[in-house]
Specification:
Blueprint (H helix, E strand, L loop, with lengths): L3 E14 L2 E14 L3 E5 L6 H8 L7 E9 L2 E2 L5 H10 L1 E4 L13 H13 L1 H10 L7 H17 L5 H4 L9 H13 L5 E5 L7 H18 L2 E6 L2 H7 L2 E6 L2 E7 H6 L4 H8 L49 E4 L2 E3 L16
Parallel strand pairs: 3-8, 3-9, 6-7, 7-8
Antiparallel strand pairs: 1-2, 1-4, 4-5, 9-10, 10-12, 11-12
Helix pairs in contact: 2-3, 3-5, 3-7, 5-7
The protein binds adenosine-5'-triphosphate.
Adenosine-5'-triphosphate binds next to strand 1, strand 2 and helix 1.
C-alpha cells in the first residue's frame, strides 16, 4: 500500500491588501504519496504558487489562516523555525520559475551547491557555527569531497563540463543551465519531496523536455516524490501520476492523470483540455476560455468558475461546492457532473 508523504487539508492562505483580503488559497486539500509525481494545474492566478509556497512556509507576505499541512508526520502550519529549517534541509526542496530568485549572483554555482550539501548534512550545527562564524567543514579533504559531490550533481542534472563550470557564476549560465543549477542545489538536499514551480516555463521546448526527463529519472532512481506546479496539461500528461486542477484558489477536480485527462468531470478541466494545442485543429487559432479569472478579494460565493461555465445554474452562484466522488480516487467539485460528456474514445 502506498504511504502518504504530504497531506494538505483545508488550507487557507490570505493576503491583506488595501483592496481587501485576497483569498489566494481557499480550502485546498490533496495528498502526495512517497515516490509519487503529482501535478497542480490551472490558469495564471488560480492559486498554484501560493499553495506550493505555503507548504514549505514561504507564504510571506501572505499568512496561513487555517488548515493543515502534514509532511512526514510534522505539522508545518505551526512548526517553529528550527523544524521548518530541518524540513527544508532534507525533506522538501523547492525549485522556482525564476532561477534568479534562488541563485545568489555573488557566489559560484559550485559554492551554492556545496552550501546546500552542508545544510542537508547538518542543518542545526550549521546554524550554530554560522552564528559563531566558524566554518563547519574546515578540513581540506572534506572541502574537496564536497566540491566533487557538487560536480557529480551538476553532471546528474545535465550540465556539460561540470569540472570547469563548477567555478562559474550564475550570470555566466544560460536560462536552461541556471534552471539545471537550481535543480542541482535542490537535489543536494536529497529531498523526499521536490516542489517544482513552473521550472521550465521560460525555456524552449527542447530544453523543457530534457529537464522534465531529468526530473522523471530522478524520481525513478531516487524514489523522490515531485509536486509539479504548471499551467500546461501537456506537462501533466507527460510526467505526472495524479493531477490536482485548481481554479480561484480551490481544487476543482483531482484524480489519476489518465482518468482526468480522458474522462474529465469538471467543466473547467474540459475547458483547459479544449485549449491544449493538441486538441485544436492545425492552422486554426488556439481555443481560449472566454472571460477572466475572478478577483480573489473577499473570497468566493459559490463556484469561482460559474461566470465562465456553460452549464452553470443558480445553485452554482451561492453556497459551498459539493465534493462528488466520480471514480476511484477521482473527485470533482461541481453540481453538474452528470451532465458532462462521456469518456473520450482511446483513438480520439
Ligand atoms: N504578495 C501578494 N499580495 C497580494 N496578492 C497576492 C500576492 N501573491 C499572490 N497573490 C494573489 O494570489 C492569487 C493566487 O496567485 P498565485 O501566484 O498562487 O497563482 P498561480 O496560479 O500560481 O499563477 P501563476 O501561474 O501566474 O504563478 C492571485 O490572485 C494573486 O494575485
Amino acid at each position: 500500500m502506498s504511504e502518504t508523504l504530504l497531506e494538505v487539508e483545508d488550507l487557507h492562505t490570505r493576503f491583506a491588501t488595501r483592496e481587501g483580503t485576497v483569498h489566494a488559497v481557499e480550502g485546498v486539500s490533496f495528498t502526495v504519496d512517497k515516490g509519487e509525481i503529482v501535478g497542480v494545474v490551472g490558469e495564471s492566478g488560480s492559486g498554484k504558487s501560493v499553495t506550493a509556497r505555503s507548504l514549505i512556509r514561504l507564504e510571506d507576505p501572505g499568512y496561513i489562516e487555517r488548515g493543515s499541512v502534514r509532511f512526514d508526520d510534522i505539522e508545518m502550519t505551526d512548526a517553529d523555525d528550527r523544524t521548518i529549517r530541518r524540513v527544508r534541509g532534507d525533506g522538501m526542496a523547492m525549485v522556482f520559475q525564476d532561477p534568479m530568485e534562488t541563485l545568489n549572483p555573488v557566489f559560484s554555482i559550485g559554492e551554492q551547491i556545496v552550501e546546500s550539501i552542508k545544510v542537508h548534512e547538518s542543518p542545526e550545527e550549521q546554524r550554530l557555527l554560522d552564528y559563531l562564524n566558524v566554518p563547519l567543514f574546515s578540513s581540506r579533504g572534506k572541502r574537496s569531497q564536497m566540491r566533487q559531490q557538487a560536480i557529480d550533481l551538476m553532471s546528474e542534472v545535465g550540465i556539460p563540463h561540470p569540472e570547469t563550470r563548477v567555478s562559474a557564476y550564475p550570470h555566466e549560465f544560460s536560462g536552461g543551465m541556471r534552471q539545471r543549477a537550481m535543480l542541482a542545489i535542490a537535489l543536494a538536499r536529497e529531498p523526499d519531496l521536490l516542489i517544482a514551480d513552473e521550472p521550465t516555463t521560460a525555456l524552449d521546448v527542447t530544453i523543457q523536455a530534457e529537464i522534465l526527463q531529468r526530473i522523471r529519472d530522478l524520481n525513478e532512481e531516487l524514489g523522490m516524490a515531485v509536486l509539479m506546479i504548471t499551467h500546461d496539461l501537456g506537462v501533466v500528461a507527460e510526467l505526472c501520476d495524479k493531477v490536482v486542477v485548481m481554479y480561484g484558489g480551490q481544487v476543482m477536480e483531482e484524480g489519476p492523470v489518465e482518468e482526468v485527462l480522458t474522462n474529465p468531470k469538471h467543466p473547467y478541466t474540459e475547458s483547459l483540455l479544449g485549449c491544449m494545442p493538441q486538441t485544436c485543429d492545425r492552422g486554426e487559432p488556439l481555443n481560449v476560455i472566454e472571460g477572466r479569472v475572478p478577483s480573489m478579494v473577499g473570497g468566493p460565493t459559490g463556484c469561482p468558475f460559474a461566470s465562465r461555465c456553460w452549464c452553470s445554474s443558480e445553485s452554482c452562484t451561492t453556497g459551498d461546492l459539493p465534493t462528488e466522488q466520480v471514480g476511484e480516487d477521482h473527485t470533482s467539485r461541481c453540481h453538474h457532473v452528470e451532465e458532462l460528456s462521456e469518456p473520450m474514445e482511446a483513438d480520439q
